[in-house]
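Q: What does the predicted 3D structure of ABC-2 family transporter protein look like?
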Amino acid sequence: MWLMALFTFREAWRKKVALIAGALTLAFLILYGTGLHFITRDMVNTANPAAAASYYAMMQAVTLFVLGIYLASFLAAGLAVLAAVGSVAGEIENGTLYTLAVRPLSRRDLLLGKFLGLAAMLVTYAALFFLALASLVYWQTGLVIPGLVPALGLFILEPLVLLAVTMLGTTRLSTLGNGVLAFALYALAVVGGMIEQIGALVESTAAIYTGVVTSLILPADAVYRRLVATVVDRLPVGNGQDIPRFINPQSMLGPFGSQSTPSDWMLLYTLVYIVVLLAAAVYVFNRRDI
């Protein structure tokens, strides 16, 4: 299994999808950094040193960081789906899986090895992406992102959820069908998350429950909301002159914030979700007639 994981990790970096994702990520970082420079020149880095240390100024920097993380999540999710969408189905369609099947390697080890190899690639990619965004924000605003380590862990967790879903799909569906299903589920989770946050803003219980249901179907957006809450809740008070007393800081982020914050139980559910989907993938793959 570990040899398969190492082989998959090396192969993942050589695929065109990884090269395309790397090029798009670099372009994104250049565009984001350029926009950040011109925005913070007028918004955050004011001529008044006291204002730069205010809570409001830090919330501006966090808002820019959160928007970057929100958009970066799409790239990480896309890489997770495209890297794994044909990991089993594609090899069956190309006939290359039969070469591996005659070797003394169980289907469970084959599948889990592929998952671990792709997961290692995604963890590396997501960690570098997250730290690059945090570094750009620090460079332009001077703000060290609060809760950097737990936020990093949550950002890494997002593509792993998509990876588990795609690994289950590739054991049964065609490459195209699996890709369509994975992206559709991700879109459902993102839209549901937006509905939940807007529902929290307007105090609509039905809208909040709608978002909770979509989070149970695919908890990727819930992980993002918890990441945002982790950063905002650990924001220091600044110079203490403009601490909001009657306004929830999450409301300043609008639908990109976390008015309805996922609990620790949702994080536990996410971890169990990944394990259960992997177990289901192994079960389906073992029973599939190839």
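A (community wiki): The structure tokens above were generated from the sequence. The first helix runs from residue 2 to 14. The chain has one domain: 1-287.
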